[in-house]
Backbone:
């Protein structure tokens, strides 16, 4: 059985979003444009924050990390999809598929945890402003990001090792445009009970816990704002959370929409199409949300572009 696992499933077939040949150029152009906009937009956020000393604060440090994770996130899936469309093939090797599963889980988990850390940062800034610089010191910020990366890497590695024990038939078709773990478990020809249990546990650790942290932080923020007497102070305090709330709503809204749509329709095509929202569209929109709603980032971007264009 082990020999079948490594030789019989030397490659998989990614069915993609559509089998219609006439739609392939449109899909290629659309995804290439979204990928370039995502990389360029997030890269500009990183350059703007690092080049402006006024933005060297915990909030923008986490924003830089979120932008970097978003670049890595889309780069895990979209380039292989574009290459396959251009080459008119659907192949992905066994090793490439495992790499996609590992990095997809790692960067998706980092997205979740970073959004939770950013919510905690806003909680400290609004609810404990006098102790903000002491609590959110550079050492703690770096430690939070590094610890999060270690946790999600270990969880992803566990899933990778559990996949190695599964068997797959030669020429297995995956009804998606990348190797997603749930789709991979559907097409396995051996028992996936242990993998499913591990997936539920990972969802709780990397999904539900960060989401609970966000809800807790904002419940405390709202409670603190209600105790403020000045309307101007309330607006100023809450305005610093506006961009983060939009990103959180977009990320969790699209993710929830994917699972609800897949539960209702029960078709792989609709599920893979809906997953485009949180895998490609959300990372693309994040830089626009932070740059358009944040005057500090907007000003830093303006200075960066003015220096780049004489």
Residues:
């Amino acid at each position: 059985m082990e020999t079948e696992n490594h030789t019989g499933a030397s490659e998989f077939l990614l069915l993609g979003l559509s089998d219609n040949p006439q739609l392939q150029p449109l899909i290629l152009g659309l995804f290439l444009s979204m990928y370039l906009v995502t990389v360029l937009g997030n890269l500009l956020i990183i350059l703007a924050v690092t080049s402006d000393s006024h933005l060297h604060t915990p909030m923008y440090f986490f924003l830089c990390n979120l932008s970097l994770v978003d670049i890595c996130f889309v780069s895990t899936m979209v380039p292989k999809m574009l290459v396959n469309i251009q080459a008119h093939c659907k192949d992905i090797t066994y090793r490439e598929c495992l790499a996609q599963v590992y990095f997809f889980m790692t960067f998706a988990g980092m997205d979740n945890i970073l959004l939770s850390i950013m919510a905690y940062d806003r909680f400290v800034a609004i609810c404990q402003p006098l102790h903000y610089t002491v609590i959110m010191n550079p050492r703690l910020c770096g430690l939070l990001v590094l610890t999060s990366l270690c946790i999600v890497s270990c969880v992803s590695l566990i899933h990778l090792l559990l996949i190695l024990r599964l068997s797959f038939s030669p020429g297995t078709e995956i009804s998606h445009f990348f190797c997603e773990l749930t789709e991979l478990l559907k097409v396995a020809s051996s028992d996936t009970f242990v993998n499913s249990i591990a997936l539920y546990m990972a969802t709780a650790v990397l999904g539900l816990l960060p989401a609970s942290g966000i809800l807790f932080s904002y419940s405390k923020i709202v409670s603190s704002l209600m105790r403020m007497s000045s309307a101007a102070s309330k607006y100023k305090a809450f305005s610093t959370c506006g961009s983060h709330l939009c990103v959180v709503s977009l990320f969790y809204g699209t993710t929830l929409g994917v699972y609800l749509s897949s539960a209702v329709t029960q078709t792989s095509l609709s599920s893979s199409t809906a997953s485009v929202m949180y895998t490609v569209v959300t990372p693309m929109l994040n830089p626009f949300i932070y740059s358009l709603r944040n005057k500090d980032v907007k000003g830093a971007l303006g200075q960066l572009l003015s220096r780049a264009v004489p």
Residues 2-308 form a domain with the Rhopdopsin 7-helix transmembrane proteins fold (CATH 1.20.1070.10). The chain has twelve helices and three strands. Residues 262 and 271 are 5 Å apart (CA to CA). The beta strands are 11-14, 91-93, 172-174.
